[in-house]
Protein 1
Amino acid sequence: MDRIMIVEDDPKIYTLLKEQLEKYGYEAVVADDFDRIADQFTQIEPNLVLLDVNLPKFDGFYWCRQIRQISTCPILFISAREGKMEQVMALEHGADDYITKPFDYEIVMAKIASHLRRAYGSYAPKATERSLSLHGLTLLPERLEVSLADQSLELLRKESLLLEVLMERYPRVVSRDRILEKLWDENHFVDENTLNVYVTRLRKKLKDLGIEEAVETVRGAGYRLKVTWADVSS
Amino acid sequence: MRLFLRDHVPLMIILGLQIVITSIVYAFNDGSALSTISYVFIVSLFLLLVFLVYQYVTKRGFYARLSNPEASMEPIFTSKSRQFTPIEQALQDLLTDQFHFMQQELHQAENRMNRHVTFMNQWVHDMKTPLSVIHMTIQDEDEPIFDSIREETDRLTKGLETVLYMARLDSFEHDFYIEEVDLAQMMGQFVKQNKRLFIRSQVFPKIGIAENQTVVSDEKWLTFVFSQIINNAVKYSTGKSRTIEISASMEQEHLVVQVRDYGIGIPAHDVERVFEPYFTGDNGRQYPASTGMGLYLVHEICNRLGHRITVESEQGEGTSVRIYFTNTTEDDAYRRKE
């Protein structure tokens, strides 16, 4: 399991980060002695470091240099300063990436995953793969694969994202806005019509697994997943 | 010369009167001949003239300086070539004192200003921690109440950003970095980061910018400029139109980036004034949270970056904001930097 070291002095931020990292299957360790970050680094032996710039005593840049002397492990800065100069400085001090506050979890998780992959290769012992299960229906978001009983099916990326958010929120209704937000990326701005298309396609895919009418439209609110299939696994 | 004459008019009047009075007194005194009277008259007049000429010759420089003040105070204190008359010396000393005093004041004001900017910078960044905590805490919540909180935290973030850029505007020269900016990539990132704004307002961007289209500018400031413009476009489209168009095209030697919305538009009598600070106009009164600072900042930043910006609008039809980039003369931006 990949171990991530969090160096951040705000208790709420590191607690929330830790929870989120653990949800994604990482082991998260919070550094607590801001006098001896480098020593703690040697003890913890993390695969990746999340480092705040503003720290008591010495700043993040200082610790970044210290860590660089003993390790090549990926270091990601997390800072409220969004200036170009700070980013350039961070990179010059040996950091691999720079994330500005306030950040979306998705961005942090995506960056962590990509830096781990780059540093240790895709054959490196992978953290436990993320999987969602609901009443015998299993989604493996990283493989874009959904399975029920012994049957499994490939999904397209957007379909997988859509199913993921529906399963995560089950049994609650997921608002259209939230789904749209999940599906947006730099190149594809999903509007409501496109969303309808994705929903139709997902319904069709689920039908191939023998699941019908599981994605329910809630007028004026959004969509909801309904368990209409039999749990064969149990 | 004129100042000198004006300054000496009272003296000349007094002496003139004195001569006339003396002559009259002599005239009534029977013993005096006309020749004596004219003698006194001529001698007095001659003395006056000599005095005036002497005054003029010695103080010509002094009067010249008084009538044509230098733009800056500096050269006054460096010109030590001439001998000063006492009055001139006194004035010189007074001016020197005043100058040093004012300089001290200015220096203090500058220090205060710098401290203020530093404080604003620090404060805005400090405020981002609680904002981040709120943002992170509610990120996975989906109930309407959290949407509302998210909307407000987004507004707070935007507000803090505006404060930060406003405070930085004065130290602009030290705070920018000219490079080739990939427009399509920058817009893509911006749209992704602000997706909640678009989704919430149900206004969707259509981007017509060719891949690898670059402009020579500062990415950070330019992103801020577009963020203000696009925010306005979305705000004034909400409920009326569902798309805004962001496109780039060549116009003679300029690359023009246009943000076009089909929203409520700006009344004709307000269009001219949108770049004025604190100007909110009719639309500002209809929509809360208009500070009148957004477009003013945009205009100031564009000026400093050397980009021309124009606004065209028709009430009820929409608005288009255009920014003109000069890509061919790259050194233009550098020249500004120096």
Note: Confidence is low (pLDDT under 50) at residues 329-333 of chain B.
Protein 2
Amino acid sequence: MSMRLQQRAFIYQAILLVAFVILQLLVFSVIEYRDWRDNHHEETLAENLEEVVDVTAMNLLLLPLMFALVWWFSRRILEPVRRIADTAAQIGGGHFDERIDTRRMPDDDMRHMAETLNAAFAHYTSAVHRLRRFSGDASHQIRTPIAAMRATGEVAVSRPRNAEDYRAAIGDMLAELERLSFMVEQLLQLSRLDAGTLRERFVPFEADVVIRQSAQIYAPLCEDAGITLECQAEPGVVVLGIEALARELLNNLLDNAIRHTPRGGAIRLGVCRSAEGIRFYVHDSGEGISAEFAETVFERFSQIPGSRQGRAGLGLALAADIAAVHGGTLVVANPGCQGARFEWRLPMPANAPVFLIVEK
Amino acid sequence: MILVVEDDPRVSSSLARGLGEAGYGVSVAATLREAQAQVESSSLALVILDLGLPDGDGVQVLRRLRRDGLRVPVIILTARDSVVARVAGLDEGADDYLAKPFSFPELLARVRARLRTARQESESAVLQVGDLEIDRLARRVRREGCVIELTAREFDLLAYLAANAGFPVSRDMLTREVWHVASRATSMDKIIDVHMSHLRDKLEGGAGRRLIHTLRGIGFLFSETAP
């Protein structure tokens, strides 16, 4: 493709060159002719036109050189196009980590295009990687409840039983099915976040309201588990995003915190403004998360070692993805310390819409 | 008569059986054409409508009903659960929307609610189940004449269970209708269980009979008699 483009560029420029040479000769001839006429035929016309012949010869000699130069320039200018096409072909062939080499490109429109394309490639590559990991993990996790359901059903019908036994078997299967549906729901939620078109639905909401709602939902559970829940929500913090997702993020963090906090412990939940932006946090008094696991804890289907309950391990992955969708990050703020502190850090947008507080 | 428009034979036969056992007359249509024919010929009390039909979009049934000026309640049932699809369905004049996978108790609760609204039945403020009296206006609960103190959430929970007395209620339903948490990806099970156990302690704490029964794999049942 780029080859043909280069040929076309060359042909256009070559035509221009030839046209220029012909025009030059014509003009030159006319000038020489008028010179000869005005000078009252001191020399013969042939003598006068000799110079034109010289110029023509010179032009004919130079023309191949010019052609070569034109070829070389068009090749050079279109070189990035070929590189882009090659890279795209490689990515299309499954080499998702290939990128257009922009280091030697001059800082021009072409480089800008290459960089834009690289950003697009990176976006899709990460989506592809996530999708691959997703399907790998998901197939494993989904098989387990299916196997359980199948075994329960098969055993139940293998010989005659009384109604109570059948009811128990169906109940077990339904319980397993519920586990499966919950997991599928979480996975679908994750894939919807991956799609990355949520930004269009962002609206400003008040952070302290979300914090208080989550605290209210989880308070009875904490009470039951003998955990103190402290809520420290700074009022007037406005976040641009999707409130329902923010609530889900906090709920998942709280869910996790309650599971890792012993009886008599405490969980602190809150939001505050810092120099860098907005910070939501959930701080429990459990064992904490070692530096080693501070990263992997957000991966799908990861299990915190010593976790009390064998769950699918999607809650924190979901929370991290929600944080990312909002342009922030979810981190373990104190790896290796006693009592894990999860922070959702949201950079304050440059045009912080303070007036929105009034507007609301 | 309830019309079930659903192309998957297993889903439609369980729906038909479940609704039949709940005392409703049911007819089933598996294609858009069948559905259109049924809509014309029979008088319907309610339509349960799947959108993805083999010969077209189920929304056309809904459009036709509304164009003909029929106010039959329509509950859309579909695997497309995005917000856009939901809004589109409701915009076309659907009364309710349930995303697959749905729980049958939830569908049944919605069918009851829609039929009630269609009949303009007003829900009375005071519900009476056995020796339990629930005043939904005053938000007060009495058992054998004694007032039982409940938190706001416990009251909502009890009111919802009692409104569906005799029918199973799933945790999914409670998540949405009592806690108003829309996303099913948030695990509410433990929270519901904690409230449920508190509510039970308060209601059945004395020598009172069991009122809230746990149905394994389904959820809960509010009833005077054991299931």
Note: Chain B touches chain A at residues 82, 101, 153, 171, 179, 181-188, 190-191, 194-195, 198, 215-218 (CB under 8 Å).
